[in-house]
Amino acid sequence: MINRVVLVGRLTKDPDLRYTPSGVAVATFTLAVNRAFSNQQGDREADFINCVIWRKPAENVANFLKKGSLAGVEGRIQTRSYDGQDGKKVYVTEVVADSVQFLEPRNASGNQGGSFNGNQQNQGFNAGNPFEAPSQKPSFNDDPFGGTSKTIDITDDDLPF
């Protein structure tokens, strides 16, 4: 059987971090994911998907993401039920995240998060693996053709397509 989910969306509010009685961290958040099509009025609709993540990744999500942050979530769909206060059975469907990718720099949406080594942004940071190094974004000064005034002659025969 296969139960795999991959989502990219924005958080609708700050993550809610809690701890179980045994001290295990759990964070819940809702991800707004735009649909690929428009409705009859031409408006784009979104799905609001509840997500939960556990342990150290939960603490990372709570520390580095906030309302409006762009995030990628990978995990599985889980359904559960419980008896509500009125005695009726309540059914819950949520994504249990294995990992959360932070998909924009911390200051792009006003995030106040930081990185683990203090001199790199958390762009591309994997909340599911806090020991994975953040990806490096090349700077504009890394132009391999910069600093030369020569033109580059390319013919159609030089192109591979």
Q: What does it look like?
A:
The chain is mostly beta strands and about 160 residues long. The protein has one domain (about 5-135): Nucleic acid-binding proteins (OB fold (Dihydrolipoamide Acetyltransferase, E2P)). The protein contains one helix and six strands; from the N terminus they run ββββαββ. Strands 1-3-4-6-5 form a five-stranded mixed beta barrel. The longest helix has 10 residues, at about 55-65. Mean pLDDT is about 80; it is low at about 110-125 and about 130-140.
What would you say about this model in short?
By secondary structure, the protein is mostly beta strands. It has one helix at about 55-65; strands at about 5-10, 15-20, 25-40, 45-55, 70-85, 90-100.
